[in-house]
Amino acid sequence: MASTSAHSEGAELGSFLRARRTQTNPEHVGLTVGAGIRRTPGLRREELATLAGISIDYYVRLERGKETRPSPAVLDSLARALHMDDQEHQHLRELATRAARYAPQPPPAPSRTVRPHLKLLLESLRPNPAYVISRSMEMLAWNPGGLALYAGLEDWPAKHRNLARYLFLHPAARDLFDDWDRRVTGCVARLRAVAGTAPDAPDLTNLVGELLLKSPDFARLWERYEVTGRKPAQKTFQHPRVGTVTLTSQSMHLEGTPGQRIGVYTAEPGTPDHDAMTLLDMTEPVAAPSREIPHTSP
Known about the structure:
The chain is an alpha+beta fold and 298 residues long. It contains 13 helices and five strands. It has a five-stranded antiparallel β-sheet with strand order 2-1-5-4-3. Strand 3 and strand 4 form a beta hairpin. Helix 2 (45-52) crosses helix 3.
């Protein structure tokens, strides 16, 4: 059991290194590429090993998941060689830590229970759209605007309301966001970051397995193994009820509730965006029968 788990954790570390290596442009890291055809995308293993100052045999073992205890110095050298940003570097450290001290049993999924005072908080934030979300992007609680903002999400039963599932499988999602491609790229990167340090957690594996099966777009982005954190940002919605509305989003981890965070959207009072947000909060959801989740990508 322990040996199998160790191999799994090492494989996750190797997968991340392989993805970053194959997506690193040789010229970007100072290598001169000859005129011949390169059969390997990105860097070759021996090129990365040389840049990081480690042996090719050692690097191959890392990438194949057979070496699970790289030193901090080796990790830092690989991060520098691959020009990782701070978030990618931290993710690499977390994967290595987990590979070195693997747990033979997967950790339990975080609680889906939202405490009563948090539901009161959501109500007090009206008309600002707000919701409580799990680490796997399950919508656990919301105020009227928080649900209505994602047009058509109310069509699905409450237990299926997941923002990643919505972005990839709901037919309204592509029309809601002009920058849908950027939204789904960020969504997959956030899931990758979480799943990389809890690869066997049921809440994550079930969602990822479903999206890999139903959405070729998700499968393509998942294979890239990009990781990033959430950042405050403005988002523009082409909403069928209130028209175009641009809101500023903020996500915060909730104290005492591991894996849960609250998302809130705001707009400057007196602006058309604030008026649209207020109207959305007051608008009753369009009556519609419960819609099954499609078995193919939109």
